Amino acid sequence: SGISWRITHPQVRMHVDTPPGYAQWKNVEITGYVKINKTNVITADHYQNDIPDHIAWLARSGEHSDRNPCDGTALSGAIRDDGSVGWKKEIWFTGGYTSESAKAKPTNSIVGRWIGWKVVVYNIDNGKAVKMESYLDDKDDNHWVRVTNLTDSGGWYADRSDKEFYSVNCGRPKDYVITNSAPRVVFRADNMILDFKDLSVREIEPPHYLSP
Question: Contact, 101 vs 86, CB < 8 A?
C-alpha cells in the first residue's frame, strides 16, 4: 500500500497484543516496511547513548516495566541505521539482556530509503530450542533475502553479573531459552525520525526439522 505514517518520538514501542480469545503469540512472522529519515534524534529526556540507532521487531514479549520485570522477555531481531543486523535476548527487564549475536552487515546505510524488515521466530527440536531468522527487502521490491539464522538451544547467556541477573528472582537460568509463548509482539525504533507502513504479525506453523 502507498499509505505510510511518520513517527518523530525517539523511543517507539508499538505493541501488538494477542487477539482476545486466541492463544498467545508463539511461532511468529513479524514484518514491516520503514524509511529512516534522520538518526541521532537526541532529546535530553529520552536519548540513551547505550541504545543504537536501530529498528527491532520483538517476539515472545510481555510487559516491560519495573513492576513486573519477569514479564519483560523478548527475542529481538534488529537492523541498525548503518545496515548491520543482529539478535538480542532479554530474559528479564532490564538486567537480563544478552550481548548481540548473529551479527552481520548485509547492506549499506538504510537511511533515506524504504526497506522491508522481517523476523521469524519458531520452536524446533520438540520445543526445546528456538530458531530465529531475519530477512531484508533491501530494494523495497518484495525480494526478501535471509540475513541472519540463529538457533538458541542453551549457552546464550545474559551478559550481566550474577548478582544483577539473580537480583530479580525469575526462577530462570542465565541462558534461559525463551521457548514459551507470550502475549506481545513489539515494533521498536530508537533515536530516529521514521516512516513506516504495512506492519503485520502472523502466527506460523514451524517447519518440521528433525534437529537444529
Answer: yes
Give the phi and the psi of residue 179 in degrees, each rounded to 5. -90, -10
Q: Report the distance separating Cα 141 and Cα 134, nearest Å.
A: 17
* pLDDT at residue 121, rounded to an integer: 98
Q: In this structure, how many other beta carbons lie within 10 angstroms of the beta carbon of residue 165? A: 20
DSSP summary character for residue 82: T
Asked if 187 contacts 16 with a C-beta cutoff of 8 angstroms, the reply is: yes
Q: What's the CA gap between 80 and 150, in Å, rounded?
A: 18
What is the model's pTM? 0.93
Residue whose entry in the numeric block shows the C-alpha cell 541472519: 148
What pLDDT, on the 0 to 100 scale, is given for residue 212?
A: 44
> Residue 175 corresponds to which amino acid?
D
User: Which positions ≥6 away from 61 have C-beta within 8 Å?
Assistant: 72, 73, 74, 90, 182, 183, 184, 185, 186
Distance CA 98, CA 187 (A): 19
Classified as helix, coil or strand, 143 is: coil
Nearest to 121 by CA among 174, 73, 81, 83: 73
> Which alpha helices (H) appear in 70-167, and where do they start and end?
162-165
Burial-class residue 65 by CB neighbours within 10 Å (0-12, 13-18, 19+): exposed
